[in-house]
Design a protein that fits this description.
Cytochrome p450; three-stranded antiparallel β-sheet; 15 helices; 13 strands; binds protoporphyrin IX containing FE; heme binding; monooxygenase activity; heme
Length: 398
Amino acid sequence: MTTLATHAPSSDYDPFDADVLLDVHLHDGRLREVAPVVHIEKYDFYAVTRHAEIQKALRDWRTFSSTDRPFYQPNPFRPNAPLMQDPPDHTQTKSVMMRIFSRENMAKMQAYFAESATGLVDDLLAGGAVDLDAYRDVAARYVLQVFPDVLGLPTEGRELLLKFGDAVFNAFGPQNEHHHAKMRSGAPALAWVEENMKRELQDEGGIGAQLYAAADEGVISETEAEQLLKSVFGAGFDTTVFGISGALRAFADNPEQWQLLRSRPDLIESAFEEALRLYPPSRYGGRIAVRDTELGGIAIPAGTKLLLMWLGAGRDPRKWSDPDQFRIDRHDAGSHLSFGFGIHTCAGQAVARLEAKSLLSALIDRVERIELAGEPRRAINFQAFGHESIPIRLVPAG
Ligand code: HEM
């Protein structure tokens, strides 16, 4: 029996409203409960809200193309490759991108990330129990040291990478005053990034040089090599800082989970996945339907632009039991969509996971308790989700 697809229900929900941005879990969660696919009247796109339907769309790249999306217009902060490509172009650029995460490169990172994490945590705890900011003093300090070092970036100006990410993730949304303010405040960061992307500034044999070498081989164009490097700069820093600081917040809110991790360090990987499910650093992605189709029994005409709202899907009760709870021993924590899914799944997830694992390993050996020491403050951003401040107290292990 064939089921006829029905029209998408319409909603006056505005995912970019200032009040919504203050609590996206609440509001995107309410939208998720309306239907798996909802027409957003104000901007005339469809929101895909639930885990199963988002995953289905991401698997079917032939129908849900990456070459267009709601609000798309060229923007110097957002490179087109690899995110806005379909195969065969995407296959080429992604394979070049993945070369930089080769086993050899990852092995070098592993040793360096672990050593740096130990050094940082020893330094933080040198005077005993300490009050600090999990976002600024732990996650940002660590991520801005280790990955830029691997990329061979100068120390001066590194903090601009977070400003750059802030603009990148506010570029994908309506062109309102919030968007324009972020483009203006991100301008110095864009200039720094474009300077440091230059071919002649890349370390010999380093990650940037490896991308330009693929252009020399003719595998990708020079422009694509530049765009790949820009996407590492744009996607590789505040995402990971938000992910790691979100994990620290989750542990501060759930002290028994920290004790569980200390007694079962084999749960480190699943703990980070669980934190990414609960606090996904990326709220949504975009696609366009290039032929008539359906999702969850709802008709989607060719030409429809869609937002795939995976932050809300991370707490979809159809997929997760007790979705609002942080439980590091969930057996399927890693099946969240916070790194995307399908051919565009996050290129840098191995690096992000390695950074998180290295830091958490150093902390579980040395920290008895992580306590919340003040009110966390959210970073307000269209597409990125995270905190700009999480006051915590680290109590060292005896
Ligand atoms: C916790 C940290 C991170 C999170 C949550 C995250 C999230 C994501 C998500 C959701 C996507 C899919 C976008 C889509 O399908 O529309 C993606 C793609 C991507 N990410 Fe990440 N990311 C993280 C870290 C990184 C890092 C460290 C890098 C670079 C070193 C990176 C580079 C990329 C690139 C280049 C893509 C595009 C892949 C493609 O189009 O095939 N990300 N990321």
